Amino acid sequence: MAVVGFRRCNDTTGRQITAVVTESGYFHKSSGPLGKPGRYHCARDLRRFPPRPSDHPIQKSVALMRRLHGDKQHAYARVLIAPVMVRLEEGVDEASTSDVISSFTGAAPPGTSSLEDAISAFYRAIGAPVRPAPRAARAWSISAPRTPRADQYLRVLVQGAPVTTGRRGASCTVTPQAVRLDFTDRSELDRTQVLDLHAALTAWLRLNP
After folding, report:
1. How many other CB atoms are there within 10 angstroms of residue 192's CB atom?
2. Is the dihedral angle over the CA atoms 117, 121, 126, 132 positive or is it negative?
3. Following DSSP, what letter does each residue of 55-75 receive, concatenated?
4. Which residues of 103-133 are buried (b: 16+ CB within 10 A; e: fewer)?
5. Cα(40)–Cα(158) distance, integer angstroms
6. Residues of the chain with pLDDT > 90: what percent?
7. C-alpha to C-alpha distance for 118 and 83, rounded to whole angstroms
8. What is the pLDDT of residues 129-170, one digit of tens each?
9. Which of 97, 105, 75, 151 is nearest to 6 (CA)?
10. Interval 107-123 mean pLDDT
């Protein structure tokens, strides 16, 4: 039987909390003094409150566990068992809070993991759909404004010819494949040369998005 859960503790009060969701959707919790069994509670008991056909008991229990983890991660700051998916031995009574939690704590491996990673592993283990990971946002983006000079340079690059801006000792050569800078002295570019350089680089960026 696959389950997912975690255990955290509060070193100031000397208390711990454990939460486990089973593959049928039972949500078990225990809380009490650190290192002791504590008080067991089935926060979602499917025997007493059978789900309706339209319900999704696993997702609802996982949502409750997410909420508990978010509410308690500051008060119970130290991680005793990082969020993890484990498979319990056959014969564990899925409806028994004490059986499930004691089996979970005995089988949970050491290590670190995020709650979402553990939930994804749990969903994969039971064949449930896994929420796709969010795409990483780009750290930056470059806009390439259209200007007559940039359009002109783009036409040159499209034909495979290079574009050179600046002057001797402070120039930039742009080819369809690369940009090469050639600054051999410490002189500065004037505004016209800067605009020319900007147009050449804009054309290259439009050719190489």
Report:
1. 9
2. positive
3. --HHHHHHHHHHHHHHHHTTT
4. bbbeebeeeebebeebbbbbbebeeeeeeee
5. 72
6. 32
7. 6
8. 776 655 554 444 445 556 788 888 888 888 888 888 887 777
9. 105
10. 91
The distance of Cα 35 from the centroid of its chain, to the nearest Å, equals 32
CA 3, CA 125: separation in Å to the nearest integer? 9
Averaged pLDDT for residues 24-35:
90
pLDDT on residue 77: 87
Hey, is 170 helix, strand or coil?
Answer: strand
Work out the average pLDDT over 102-111.
Answer: 92
Number of residues that this document lists for the chain? 209
Give the pLDDT mean for 9-23: 93
Asked if residue 23 lies in contact with residue 2, where contact means CB atoms within 8 angstroms, the answer is yes
From 42, 49, 62, select the one nearest 128 (Cα to Cα).
62
Report the chain's terminal Cα–Cα distance, integer Å: 50
Number of Cβ within 10 Å of residue 99's Cβ equals 16
Pull the structure tokens for residue 27. Answer: 């949500």
User: What is the Cα–Cα distance from 63 to 43, expressed in whole angstroms?
Assistant: 12
Q: What SS3 state is found at 201?
A: helix
Does the predicted TM-score (pTM) go above 0.70? no
